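pasting for ref
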Amino acid sequence: MEFLGIPLYDDDVYKMFIRFAFDLFFLALIVRFAILPTQQDREFAFTASMLNITVFFICFTLKKFELDIGMALGLFAIFGVLRYRTNSLPIKEMTYLFIVIGIAVINSLSNHKTSYVELVAVNSLILFAAMLKEGFVARGKTIHTGVVATPKKARKHTVEYDRLELLAPDRQFELEADLLQRTGIPISRVQVQSIDLKNASATLSVWYEASPGGADNST
């Protein structure tokens, strides 16, 4: 049965839901075990999840137009040009966005020549690589300011900081006290993004716990 030349029902809807559930499963694992433990930013996790879901349905919808390879490359090219110009994203966050786009493309565009075992292997290797990176590399670039537990509702800001001597691991409490004095916000975590020795400044990502009422105390 058709309406205006378009079929009302197609058997591909079952394939779409199965592949979407498959994609969503590995997306949830990546967000839970790779992104949230170190990023502590639920807004970024939401952005990554929606980007993955949107790309998945775009690819699956256009899959019948024989544009599989070109479309996949085009999505990465467009993403590279736009780069979410509203904010300057760190390389790490760009990498995670690239990962969620990648698994969406892989899970949506794979055909009958790709077995489910291969899909599980590819997705699992990507997940394992992300978790391995976070476990062994990210530790050296993160300064914990005395708060071990992840905040229930964390907010993140990028700040320019001028006291490089406080970035040493053994001076984390002084860094926390200085940030608290300057901003009035109790910082839960600090991550060094870049250091400019010429101008004696550093770019920091700082996380803080939002107020219980949901109000944002930042300026």
